Amino acid sequence: MSILDSKIPEGPLADKWTKHKNTINLVNPANKRNIDIIVVGTGLAGGSAAASLAELGYNVKTFCYSDSPRRAHSIAAQGGINAAKNYQGDGDSSYRLFYDTVKGGDYRSREANVHRLAEVSGNIIDQCVAQGVPFARDYGGLLDNRSFGGVLVSRTFYAKGQTGQQLLLGAYSAMNRQINRGKIQPFNRHEMLDLVKVDGKARGIIARNLVTGEIERHSAHAVVLASGGYGNVFFLSTNAMGSNVMAAWRAHRRGAFFANPCYTQIHPTCIPVSGDHQSKLTLMSESLRNDGRIWVPKRKEDAEAIRAGKLKPTQLSEEERDYYLERRYPAFGNLVPRDVASRAAKERCDAGFGVNKTGEAVYLDFASAIQRYGNEKALTSGIHNPSKEEITRLGEEVVESKYGNLFQMYEKIVDENPYKTPMMIYPAVHYTMGGLWVDYNLQTTVPGCYAAGEANFSDHGANRLGASALMQGLADGYFVLPYTIGDYLSEDIRTGKIPTDTPEFDQAEKEVTDRIQKLMSGSGQHSVDFYHKKLGKIMWNKCGMSRNEQGLKEAIDEIAALREDFWKNVKVPGTPSGMNPELEKAGRVADFLELGELFAKDALHRNESCGGHFREESVEQEGLQKGEALRDDINFKYVAAWEYKGEPKDAQLHKEELVFENIELKTRSYK
Amino acid sequence: MNLTLKIWRQSDAKSQGKIVDYPISGIEGDMSFLEMLDVLNEELINKGEEPVVFDHDCREGICGACSLQINGEPHGPDRLVTTCQLHMRKFNDGDTIYIEPFRAKAFPVVKDLMVDRSSFDRIQHAGGYISVNTSGNTQDANAIPIRKENADDAMDAATCIGCGACVAACKNASAMLFTSAKVSQYALLPQGQVEATERVLAMVNQMDQEGFGNCTNTGACEIECPKGISLENIARMNREYLKASLKG
């Protein structure tokens, strides 16, 4: 029997959440005023949780490393947010969204959690519209939808290519209302450096004021971690420069199990790496795959000529192009899920068909979409016998109205006009499905410590569908946590304020200051970035889109050695007092150097291919699916939750068996 | 390319700052401006000097963290981009580049090129929201149709990233473009109408208290805004303000 209790409510799937809400304990409004909650991270999950909890009457303190909650990296999500509204009448329903999410996650998520997510998805849209989020609308004034990878309906709501920004600003505005009422106390430019436990329960955090360098103690009756994902363990990713795993990892070291660290999403449509100076990668929304067609040259000579600058992509005829996604996956074509699209791009580039200087890029071409839209527009505008130029102009206008900001961003970065020549794209690390293990109530294995949004592991299994991250972050924060946390806090109504002048806080603060001291006393041979880049190379080469036993074993040894070197020889300039970005980075990279090893260990133990985790040893050997990922439900149908035992190599595995009562496990086919 | 950087160094809010010269070489056109500063900082760290502090995060032009007055212009010479999306191909070998923090009384320097823009947050606290509880019990999202034109205009106003370029560009250090973007977004939507009067009064009042200057319609803010927020928003806010004052 596993020690992990997922606390999934009894009863039929569709009734679980309603029943659970009806039976859990509540805290009366007067008592809520005596209860403090800390929320770490103020993106979609943290911001929405903080606002909702404060609105209920709890005293909330929020922490973020940025100068304002409005800068959290949720802001960079472009494409949209899913909701089973069925406004298009194309057969969508909560069940279909649930089914698509479980299937898209390659049957490695919890049915009950995912169904709840699908159930509340519609409410999110209602809520956001009421908050003044300006979603795209059609000429009738109703909300518009687009379709996204891995599904057969149009259920994605969007605000141009800035959906994440608009939803985050919505959550930020909800926070502002509570800040104005004095119910949220924001601690911006603060970083959580440790979780404080008292009698086994999470009772506060140690944080550093990033402006003054002061170490502060903050107590609360519960701590919510909504600190995002850990994609920056790869150094190059689409995450913000500051995105880090510190809050989650500190909680892990204090007893919170870390689940499925190896489940990483490599997003297929990012701007390719241009050189060694590169500091981060830029995503081009997956929504582009609605209209863009992905291809490489059919002949290797043509690819070579393009790489050498002797041939232009527009000079190749249709017959000379290999639309490899349409060829391999006729049913879904360019809209296969992200993991499938990414591996297919890598396969073509590894085989020598890459189209940029480094050989690591494929084309995303809008020429046919521009023609299609141009013809349509000419027809609806009553233009008879339009010239070729006119059609192109009209088509470009339509494409601009849909993706204008993305095209502009591409042009600024690459210095090429994507209306006239195909975009170049390549996969990049984007999202981490793994995270802190949580039960149905989003509570980690540390009582009183909750995890929401990308920081937890719960809803996306081994692969997340497009436009589902925003949905999960807001579902957790607006609609799940405010209920479930009350159940736990109902036992705390007589506790009173948690004092911070206790041995537990003393000890935690001492450990934090000792660690800072240690970081600052390395021999000073190499900068923090030097180590971060090295770690990123190991991760990308050996724990990236395709993994094998030998590589993973090497990665484990190499990361452990790099970590040792880091602590001996890292160079952190300046002092611990006052603003010191290098010190901040050093603390974050130190944690990545532990997480990276656990990541590789998790990937090594999971000898199957599922979702974003592709093991070269586990592929279909014959038939239509030959060469595709091979899942192993007999041996690996579980969540791997790791318990901290000192060094990452000593982490202990706990399994949560996944039970599928409503969905039949199938091989994921997009052919 | 080889460049000479003249960078504002200031150790904290209370210290006196000054321009310091840094020659730099080996810069490529494909680098972003911030990646060029990364190169400089790596050199400084290796020499045992303190790296230059500047705000940045998403590096894809959307979070609004990066700032910098580059050769006297917020976010540098290119249009409709933030500093993180400004590429070195916009400069030439041998150039001298002045890099300073955004200058405004309401944006005090934290360190070097990093400024404190919490005054922007406080303007939003004062009224930048619609008072609706997050219960999920609101009416259906399609219950109130909104004219596409209004929805699109609201979206254009809502794309403000809160970077502060408008303030840095303005000779009066006015925050009218920033404040009016939020006021406009809500004024254009039926959901925002209910509190329109209180909102515009509270936000403008907070803006004045923070020490931002007045608007004299020079339009510099619109030109320098990386998101192309239109001056029309200021006109709309003035109308809203007048309406609210009369109701008052």
Topology:
The complex is a heterodimer of chains A (671) and B (248).
Chain A (H helix, E strand, L loop, with lengths): L15 H8 L5 H4 L3 E5 L3 H13 L2 E5 L17 E2 L11 H11 L6 H20 L25 E2 L5 H18 L3 E4 L2 E9 L2 E9 L5 E5 L2 E4 L20 H8 L4 E2 L4 E7 L22 E5 L2 H8 L13 E2 L1 H5 L9 H16 L8 E4 L1 H14 L7 H27 L8 E10 L2 E2 L12 E3 L17 H21 L13 H18 L5 E2 H15 L6 H21 E2 L9 H25 L27 H4 L1 E6 L8 E6 L14
Parallel strand pairs in A: 1-2, 1-9, 2-5, 9-17, 18-19
Antiparallel strand pairs in A: 3-4, 6-7, 7-8, 10-16, 10-20, 11-15, 12-13, 12-14, 14-15, 20-21
Helix pairs in contact in A: 3-6, 3-13, 4-5, 5-13, 11-12, 15-16, 15-17, 16-17
Chain B lengths: L2 E7 L8 E7 L8 H14 L22 E2 L2 E2 L21 E5 L8 E3 L2 E2 L2 H10 L20 H11 L6 H5 L6 H12 L2 H4 L2 H14 L10 H5 L7 H16 L1
Parallel strand pairs in B: 1-5
Antiparallel strand pairs in B: 1-2, 3-4, 3-5, 6-7
Helix pairs in contact in B: 2-7, 3-5, 5-7, 5-9, 7-9
What are its keywords?
A: about 675 residues, alpha/beta, 5-stranded parallel β-sheet, 5-stranded antiparallel β-sheet, 18 helices, B: about 250 residues, alpha+beta, 5-stranded mixed β-sheet, 9 helices, elongated
